[in-house]
Backbone:
């Protein structure tokens, strides 16, 4: 199958971000003083568990970022034509999920549609009944009796497979660690189990086990069931939830990317130069932050929407249009949300500019620009890092709220916000359609919770006032405490006074 | 004799990332009723952890492994936490180093003291109020009835420390633990606080565990001293015995590293202890000091020394004094040295007459007596903005007409208490703070009002060394980048092509190596980051950075006040050596009189933005004329009891420089105040060609 790669705007920025992150990681790894706090992030068990979940989300998000246009069968021959539909790598992998569209709502694991339909019997006469689904549980002869056993059987098989992969992963981790530290494989394995390693690998392993078992079961089931049901137009909700992850991640990360230049430049210059520069910048962000954010965003989004609608020739596919709107949302969110970080950076710079090494630089006649870039910027980076990690979850939630209000992403983009927006009307319906909302909620919850936990771990590691101790030290300490006071008691009796 | 506090074999461990640190390792001491025991030691030797272990207030990462802490026979380590709460503040109280940080800023003083009374005596209401007044009276707070309802920010530093003492006394404790209670205070205030503690102890008879790094403060207040090194006490003795003849090689080195006039007269280098305090994370086999000790032999590296009793109550942990090990010969030799050094320390420079002028560091000869920098009538005012439109409501006159001259290769010491504007003078001279008025002439060129570009060319000549080696180096830069920064910023304009080529060929790199070598660091250190170095090493790096641009004048802003005495000695030696080799001039800003005695040629004493007295170091320090100088010098704690001056007590604190008193600034605190002092600022009185003061006690010159 031939295809044509497509790089949308957000894709390009995400690639850029990934490249920057890899470069940053490489730089940090080479500098011991930058690497030390990151090692402390590893001390937090909850942080490591959250990181495992995040990695899982990021993998799905990245798969969903690689876009392409598959070739379509062309009868006339000659040059190959490409489909107008832009698919991502994830779409290709999840083709069955994407294409198995039912007529309308169906509950999770259902074999029948959620609404009655009038069916004409071949022998004449009509009945109103729940028709069988086209894809969900279609392989079963008699769903009433076979459904439960089939689901249990498939789930167990999938879970087992997940467990098998987990064993492989843990074994290779232990092997890697054992080789690095020069210990025996089995003793390393037991060290991981007891949590006596510097990084709490046991927490990461338990999380990984949960994720893999759930993934295995879901993968085994989703081929022949709609495990989270279908929505109004019959699309699989599980597929939608997975697609929403990318939108959330893009909003959470690209917005930060947009706001950083503003916050860094303005915050640092305001704090460093003070005087009228400071007054102007302070005035700017005080004004900006006193305008209600939602109003500003709504106005900007509506303006871009109008522009896009009057210039349809600019976009060759629907996807590129939706993508540009997503990018604009990121930019607008970024432009309105830099004030908080800017204020923090201004304060920190005010403190730093009085530091003696800055004064020493002045005494050498070092130029302002060099002082800003070599002395101040590296010393505020920890604040930038903490803020970006903390802001991430807030932005994911903001997207959901904005889409719900109707000023968020393009309706054709699948996101948590559009899912919730679509599901809200059905809450009033009897019987209630609850699965769309629940799916969006639980996926978003998992993403935001893990991002928050990770942010906590990062903040603790970078805050000089908080001292984190690695799991190994804790274990050492517990061990020492469990020992009876065998060691100290003889010294106590021996101890003699000098006088 | 019944001991109030009896610590036996206390072992406290701090868990860290690398390995557990044995912060206190087998510490034994006892304190009698009515006795002050000074625990002396350099930073990081476990003094504060000892105090916190006694209070059982260790941080989360700390743990007491063994030993016992008996307070009047009761083992505190066995008590449950609930019972401990009844002991803290009641039977043991503690005073901390930083009075600004140990009082709660949102509670009135009465509330904070009342908390103690309520917890331990169940006093409330009027009874408690009365008791609070009594306590505040005891610690010498004027008008306690009114001031007890004020907040901590309304008190000065010395008053705050009195409040802390008042809080500690509220429980009528048997034991008072004072953790560096005067380190953050000025000498005149320190003298007040030490006096107060001495008086209170005499009246109430409590025991005091006085933790300090300052030998002379210990000499002032202690009855007995214990020298702590690397988690254990290496020597205990009564104060007199200790300062007359310290036994342990470490104690002797510590005393010898104190700067002072006698050492300068003899042209002696200060005794610096080589190496660093060993890391406490590993087990020690032999003596902990062996690696740095000049007298160590094989035995010291193999067997840890036990206690050996000397004459009197003096005890020492050193093999040199143990008869059983057959060290008689060494001991004899050592004892001779000991006597000799004691003689030096006790301020009887019996050899000084013959040695003067032959010393290694005699730099007085051969330096041209040309004026390098002359400052006339320098003024630095900071505007006070008030109101909505931020109009200027007044000025903080941080520096108000300072004149001084520094000659090439000489050292001028600027002395004064905190807040008198010393540092501002330094920064004003370097044009880091734009002066409000006056002139600063460097080699005939006026610096005030010079354009940024032309000033930049002069930057190489004038450099700066800061007080705090922890904040003066950018933690995110490697040493090589730190040192090269100034070179790059200043050399590039001159010959950009040439210097660029040079840098590529590596001569620049060689210069960094040479600089590091000249401050006593190995060239490999240039690839490291500041956090990998100790305080003394960082200060060396800061000196190397200043030297990198070949300055003629260095403003040293309290370069040793954040360092331990042994490290201070290293840095002072280094500064002197550099002055001799390179002919540098120093403006040495400090509050430490003994450092001034050692390093300075001339002294200027500052009070509230003005210089009140100046002259050569001998003139000013031996015959001070201005009452402030006299009081300042008398308040300096000294080790030798014979040479102790009568302390002249100054009342109150330095007034705010935004509202200086009319007339002579010093008159509200002056013991010799006359009516004329309140009217106009006195003119100069000259005592010799170099010695001048501004005081009405002496004949006034007509300007």
Residues:
């Amino acid at each position: 199958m031939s295809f044509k790669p497509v790089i949308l705007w957000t894709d390009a920025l995400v690639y850029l971000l990934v490249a920057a992150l890899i470069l940053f990681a490489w730089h940090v790894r080479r500098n011991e003083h930058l690497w030390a706090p990151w090692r402390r992030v590893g001390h937090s068990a909850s942080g490591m568990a959250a990181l495992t979940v995040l990695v899982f989300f990021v993998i799905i998000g990245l798969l969903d970022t690689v876009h392409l246009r598959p070739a379509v069968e062309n009868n006339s021959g000659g040059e190959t034509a490409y489909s107008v539909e832009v698919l991502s790598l994830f779409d290709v992998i999840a083709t069955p999920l994407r294409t198995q569209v039912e007529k309308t709502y169906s509950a999770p694991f259902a074999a029948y549609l959620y609404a009655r339909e009038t069916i004409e019997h071949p022998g004449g006469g009509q009945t109103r009944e729940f028709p069988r689904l086209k894809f969900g549980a279609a392989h079963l002869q008699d769903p009433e009796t076979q459904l439960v056993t089939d689901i249990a059987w498939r789930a167990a098989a999938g879970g087992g497979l997940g467990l098998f992969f987990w064993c492989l992963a843990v074994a290779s981790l232990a092997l890697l660690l054992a080789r690095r530290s020069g210990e025996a494989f089995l003793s390393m394995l037991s060290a991981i189990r007891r949590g006596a390693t510097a990084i709490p690998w046991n927490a990461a392993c338990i999380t990984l086990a949960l994720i893999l078992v759930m993934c295995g079961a879901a993968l085994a089931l989703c081929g022949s069931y709609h495990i989270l049901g279908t929505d109004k137009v019959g699309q699989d909700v599980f597929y939608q939830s997975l697609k929403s992850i990318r939108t959330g991640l893009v909003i959470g990360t690209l917005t930060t990317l947009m706001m950083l230049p503003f916050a860094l430049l303005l915050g640092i210059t305001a704090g460093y130069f003070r005087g009228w520069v400071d007054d102007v910048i302070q005035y700017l962000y005080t004004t900006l932050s006193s305008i209600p954010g939602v109003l500003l965003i709504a106005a900007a989004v509506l303006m871009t929407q109008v522009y896009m609608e009057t210039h349809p020739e600019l976009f060759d596919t629907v996807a590129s249009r939706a993508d540009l709107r997503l990018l604009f949302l990121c930019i607008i969110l970024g432009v309105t949300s830099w004030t908080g970080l800017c204020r923090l950076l201004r304060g920190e710079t005010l403190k730093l500019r009085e530091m003696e090494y800055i004064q020493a630089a002045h005494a050498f006649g070092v130029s302002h620009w060099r002082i800003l870039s070599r002395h101040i910027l590296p010393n505020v980076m920890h604040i930038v890092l903490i803020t970006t990690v903390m802001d991430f979850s807030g932005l994911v939630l903001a997207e959901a709220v904005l889409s719900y209000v109707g000023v968020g992403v393009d309706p054709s983009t699948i996101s948590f916000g559009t899912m919730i927006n679509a599901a809200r009307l059905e809450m009033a319906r009897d019987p209630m359609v609850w699965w769309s909302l629940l799916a969006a909620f639980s996926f978003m919850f998992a993403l935001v919770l893990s991002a928050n936990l990770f942010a906590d771990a990062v903040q603790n590691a970078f805050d000089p006032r908080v001292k984190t101790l690695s799991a190994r030290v804790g274990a050492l300490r517990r061990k020492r405490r469990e020992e009876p006071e065998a060691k100290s008691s003889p010294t106590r009796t021996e101890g003699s006074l000098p006088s | 004799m019944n001991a109030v506090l009896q610590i036996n074999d206390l072992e406290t461990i701090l868990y860290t990332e690398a390995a557990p640190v044995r912060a206190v390792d087998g510490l034994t001491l006892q304190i009698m009723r009515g006795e002050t025991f000074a625990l002396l030691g350099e930073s990081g030797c476990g003094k504060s952890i000892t105090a916190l272990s006694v209070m059982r207030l260790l941080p989360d990462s700390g743990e007491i492994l063994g030993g016992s802490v008996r307070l009047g026979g009761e083992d505190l380590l066995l008590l449950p936490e609930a019972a401990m709460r009844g002991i803290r503040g009641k039977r043991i109280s503690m005073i901390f180093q930083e009075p600004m940080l140990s009082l709660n800023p949102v509670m009135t003083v009465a509330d904070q003291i009342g908390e103690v009374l309520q917890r331990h005596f169940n006093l409330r209401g009027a009874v408690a109020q009365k008791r609070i007044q009594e306590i505040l009276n005891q610690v010498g707070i004027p008008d306690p009835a009114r001031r007890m309802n004020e907040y901590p920010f309304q008190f000065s530093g010395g008053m705050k420390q009195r409040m802390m003492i008042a809080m500690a006394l509220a429980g009528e404790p048997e034991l008072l633990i004072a953790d560096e209670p005067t380190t953050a205070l000025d000498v005149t205030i320190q003298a007040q606080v030490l006096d107060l503690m001495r008086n209170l102890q005499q009246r109430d008879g409590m025991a005091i565990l006085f933790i300090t790094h300052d030998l002379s403060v210990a000499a002032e207040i202690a009855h007995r001293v214990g020298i702590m090194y690397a988690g254990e006490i290496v020597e205990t003795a009564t104060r007199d015995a200790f300062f007359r003849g310290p036994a342990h090689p470490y104690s002797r080195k510590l005393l010898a590293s104190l700067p002072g006039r006698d050492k300068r007269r003899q042209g002696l280098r200060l005794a610096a202890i080589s190496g660093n305090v060993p890391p406490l994370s590993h087990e020690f086999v032999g003596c902990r000091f062996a690696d740095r000790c000049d007298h160590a032999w094989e035995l010291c590296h193999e067997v840890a020394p036990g206690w050996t009793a000397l004459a009197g109550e003096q005890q020492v942990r050193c093999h040199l004094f143990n008869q059983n090990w057959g060290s008689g010969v060494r001991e004899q030799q050592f004892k001779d040295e000991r006597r000799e050094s004691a003689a030096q320390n006790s301020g009887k420079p019996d050899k000084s007459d013959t040695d003067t002028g032959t010393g290694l560091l005699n730099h007085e000869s051969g330096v041209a007596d040309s004026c390098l920098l002359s400052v006339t009538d320098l003024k630095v005012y900071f505007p006070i903005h008030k109101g909505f439109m931020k109009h200027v409501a007044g000025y903080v006159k941080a520096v108000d007409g300072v004149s001084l001259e520094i000659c090439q290769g000489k050292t001028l010491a600027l002395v004064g208490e905190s807040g008198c504007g010393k540092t501002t003078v330094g920064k004003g001279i370097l044009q880091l703070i734009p002066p409000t008025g006056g002139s600063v002439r460097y080699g005939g060129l006026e610096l005030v009002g010079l354009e940024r570009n032309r000033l930049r060319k002069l930057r190489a000549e004038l450099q700066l060394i800061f007080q705090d080696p922890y904040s003066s180096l950018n933690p995110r830069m490697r040493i090589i980048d730190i040192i090269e920064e100034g070179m790059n910023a200043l050399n590039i304009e001159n010959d950009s092509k040439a210097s660029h080529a040079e840098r590529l060929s590596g001569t620049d790199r060689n210069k960094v190596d040479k600089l590091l070598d000249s401050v006593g660091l190995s060239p490999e250190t240039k690839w490291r980051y500041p956090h990998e170095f100790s305080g003394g090493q960082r200060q060396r790096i800061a000196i190397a950075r200043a030297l990198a641009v070949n300055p003629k004048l260095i403003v040293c802003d309290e370069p040793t006040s954040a360092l331990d005495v042994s490290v201070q000695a290293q840095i002072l030696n280094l500064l002197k050596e550099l002055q001799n080799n390179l002919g540098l001039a120093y403006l040495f800003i400090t509050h430490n009189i003994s450092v001034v005695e050692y390093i300075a040629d001339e002294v200027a004493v500052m009070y509230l933005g003005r210089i009140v007295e100046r002259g050569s170091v001998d003139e000013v320090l031996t015959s001070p004329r201005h009452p402030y100088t006299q009081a300042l010098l008398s308040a300096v704690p000294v080790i030798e009891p014979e040479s102790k001056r009568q302390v002249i007590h100054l009342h109150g604190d330095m007034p705010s420089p935004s509202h200086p008193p009319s007339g002579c600034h010093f008159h509200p605190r002056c013991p010799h105040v006359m009516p004329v002092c309140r009217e106009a600022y006195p003119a100069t009185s000259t005592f010799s060609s170099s010695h001048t003061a501004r005081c009405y006690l002496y004949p006034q010159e007509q300007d």
In short: Residues 484-499 of chain A have pLDDT under 50 and may be disordered. Chain A is about 70% helix and 5% strand.
